[in-house]
Structure to design on (484 residues):
């Protein structure tokens, strides 16, 4: 009986066909694992620790559920909507990415050219030299972390069943559009908008969508908004550490190769994050009189977000400048503008995702348009002669392209997120009941993060009351509490 041999395996009994670059494949799988660890357990730990203790289980579970749900949706239809054949200039055709034969064939084909007519110029898509299964998983963990970051705006009051509906809908109708437009061969990709590793696709979209969804879901209870101390600051730092170290895969994996660009991206990522953390801390000391651990985490996050759209496209000196600005501009919007702008105050963005991701992401995208170095751009970008504004030539136009690209992501997310929330509200309430808001995890999940007292121990309301941290906890800092 005849046997069909997948392309790439003819006359080759090895599991490593000639086209496979083992080094690139290994780095890509490591990068995907690092990004996955940012979410599970990184953000699961961070969210479960940074909220009031009555919301620890619910917050961690929102992240855990999103991570699992995205994986199944991604391989079933969403990957090809983001990186498949074009359906519209901003959207790909849905389809599964499950079959091994399909994946091998795609990787074994010669380099594919996507035609974009700019005079006589054509824009080529990169063809990684490893199985497409690697690419599917690498991009999957990016999609998952976007939903989890978005969840940070909704902690402490969103109906968990509404969240379970929201995740696949937003992934399908919002995330895939940004991913295809900027990365998958869509119109922003061909136009030359720079988004090296997701400053727009991931951070700007999650920040804007989270802020929009927070408007539709409504605020936390008055008591929670007034007093929302983290239940475990040290565990919060463990989650933040996983996030920081995992960013080596987040930015280092996006050239799809273990090359010069990936090395620059990892170094720049850490330079910008460290600078931003220090600047945010100094501003806290100058204006509030003491350094805040939560503030340091905020500064770390904004630095990581800001460098993301240009990590492999800028020089180290530019990464320092970007770190200075990412440690100060989002600090200003969160600590000054937020407190004076009534509209922003009315929307309860639990962890300040608008400031740490939307503001920092748009800032990073704009600064990339200013500082992108021509030789590094040539290693990564589809449009020839791309450069930042400081390098002259067409650099000034690049800044305008970056702003326009950010505008598209903002507009799409405001509209689509609003439609999704309104549609879900017809089926199930977006917000928890008042009883659930009062009780927290025990009412929502029947579980609590910590035992309030042990067997044989006499109940003492001053120590064991689950709401004692609302007004009487002597150790809670009076400084800013919005985070990541």
């Amino acid at each position: 009986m005849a046997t069909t041999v997948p392309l790439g395996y003819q006359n080759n009994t090895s599991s490593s066909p000639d086209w496979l670059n083992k080094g690139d494949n290994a780095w890509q799988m490591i990068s995907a694992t690092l990004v996955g660890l940012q979410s599970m357990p990184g953000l699961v730990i961070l969210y479960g620790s940074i909220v009031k203790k009555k919301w620890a289980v619910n917050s961690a579970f929102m992240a855990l559920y999103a991570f699992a749900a995205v994986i199944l949706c991604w391989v079933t239809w969403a990957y090809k909507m983001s990186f498949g054949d074009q359906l519209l200039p901003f959207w790909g055709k849905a389809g599964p990415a499950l079959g091994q034969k399909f994946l091998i064939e795609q990787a074994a084909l010669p380099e594919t050219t996507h035609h974009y007519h700019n005079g006589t110029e054509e824009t080529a898509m990169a063809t990684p030299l490893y199985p497409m299964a690697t690419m599917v998983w690498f991009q999957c963990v990016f999609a998952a972390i976007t939903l989890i970051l978005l969840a940070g705006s909704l902690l402490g009051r969103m109906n968990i069943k509404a969240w379970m509906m929201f995740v696949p809908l937003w992934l399908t109708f919002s995330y895939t559009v940004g991913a295809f437009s900027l990365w998958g061969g869509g119109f922003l990709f061909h136009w030359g908008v720079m988004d090296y590793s997701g400053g727009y696709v991931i951070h700007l979209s999650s920040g804007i969508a989270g802020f929009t969804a927070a408007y539709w879901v409504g605020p936390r209870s008055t008591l929670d908004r007034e007093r929302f101390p983290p239940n475990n600051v040290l565990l919060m730092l463990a989650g933040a550490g996983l996030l920081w170290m995992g960013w080596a895969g987040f930015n280092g994996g996006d050239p799809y190769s273990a090359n010069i660009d990936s090395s620059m991206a990892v170094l720049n990522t850490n330079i910008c994050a460290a600078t931003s953390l220090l600047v945010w801390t100094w501003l806290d000391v100058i204006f509030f009189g003491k350094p805040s651990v939560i503030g340091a985490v905020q500064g770390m996050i904004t630095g990581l977000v800001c460098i993301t759209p240009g990590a492999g496209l800028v020089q180290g000196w530019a990464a320092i400048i970007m770190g200075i600005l990412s440690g100060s501009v989002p600090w200003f919007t969160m600590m000054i503008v937020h407190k004076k702008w009534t509209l922003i105050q009315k929307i309860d963005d639990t962890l300040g995702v608008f400031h740490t991701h939307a503001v920092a992401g748009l800032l990073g995208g704009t600064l990339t348009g200013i500082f992108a170095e021509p030789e590094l751009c040539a290693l990564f970008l589809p449009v020839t002669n791309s450069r930042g504004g400081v390098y002259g030539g067409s650099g000034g136009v690049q800044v305008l392209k970056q702003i326009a690209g950010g505008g598209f992501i903002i507009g799409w997310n405001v509209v689509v997120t609003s439609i999704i929330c309104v549609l879900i509200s017809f089926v199930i309430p977006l917000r928890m009941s008042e009883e659930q808001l009062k009780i927290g995890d025990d009412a929502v999940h029947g579980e609590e993060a910590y035992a309030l007292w042990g067997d044989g121990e006499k109940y003492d309301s001053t120590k064991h009351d689950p709401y004692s941290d609302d007004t009487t906890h002597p150790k809670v800092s009076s400084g800013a509490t919005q985070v990541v």
